[in-house]
Amino acid sequence: MSSRTLNRYLAREIFAAVGFVLLGFLSLFVFFDLIAELRDLGKGEYSLRPMFTFVLLTAPTRAYELMPVAVLIGTLYVLAHLANNSEFTVMRAAGMSPGQAGWLLLKTGLVFAIATFALGEWIAPAAESMAQRVRIRAMIGVIGQDMRSGLWFKDERAFINVREARDAHHLVGVRIYQFDAEHRLERITSAARGDFLEKGHWRLSEVVQTQFTPEGPRNARLAEAEWRSAVNPDLLNVLIVVPERMSAWNLYRFIGHLGANRQKTDRYEIALWKKLFYPIATLVMMALALPFAYLHARSGMVGLKVFLGIMLGIFFYMLNSLFSHVGLLQSWPPFAAAAVPSTAFFLAALLMMWVVERR
After folding, report:
1. Other CB atoms closer than 10 Å to residue 94's CB: what's the count?
2. Better pLDDT: 184 or 333
3. Which of 179, 176, 162, 177 is nearest to 233 (CA)?
4. DSSP class of residue 121?
5. Using one digit for the tens of pLDDT, what is the confidence trace for 263-306?
6. Is the whole-model pTM more than 0.85?
7. Tag placement on the chain: N or C end, fewer CB within 10 Å?
8. How many Å apart are CA 132 and CA 148, to the nearest integer?
């Protein structure tokens, strides 16, 4: 059997198995999400239709999160099945070394890595943002709804408070507190509504301005006023979508915005490095599955090995979530915190391969 034919055969089997496993896990998690959303059913206009829409729109994010686990279990199942039918033994007898087997899996894994990156960079963030907007609009909620005073954020020497934001382009109840270079309150601007026009420009409606001067405060009322700010809908969307579910590009831009305003960026930096490392995790999972094929060929027990693979996948998912927690990693560089899960599993794969070869 030629290398090209073997690669095509393995790839076809792995694609089918990974797709089946991913569909199964995705159905399970979507069902759990649907059950969790039932507690908010009936709040505002949050009926069954927006609830189902919200859950379906969050499915791409779930698929992105589950991809490495599905790749591990699917690849492990295929290799175990081949070993159980003595096909893998025939491949080894024909001269296929562990290095060649790893290379075949690597070429297949690159497809999953590219798909994972595309899913996490474009499809999942867009769908997640739409999902949150559907939910907020249906519940007539606000961004930052857990804060009694609304949403607060900083832009250079100004602090902005927004009472309601049903989407990132339209703000309700805007207050802008402008300070001078010596941190003295210079101006307060209140507006009933703020609408995004173009880059750096907002239109404020029903505006009341209070200017603090040495002679005393001066008030002015305007029907409309222009507000120039670095704040834009892309940055406000961060407040709708959690950092772990944003695209790498939006994370990079928001980190720059926070850094320019001297605000903490730890959580967003960890999320950015995780986003960059996560596609590599699919390759690591395939490398981790390879030693199990040799163990199957020697000792059988396909079901047990697949079960161990599932446990490893769950452990990776938990470890990845643990190292996303900023509070536990205050002394860790963001790069290291994001790289630990994939590195640990890659070293485990190398160790297992060495043990198998020594037997």
Report:
1. 9
2. 184
3. 162
4. I
5. 778 778 888 888 888 898 898 888 888 887 776 444 546 677 67
6. no
7. C
8. 20
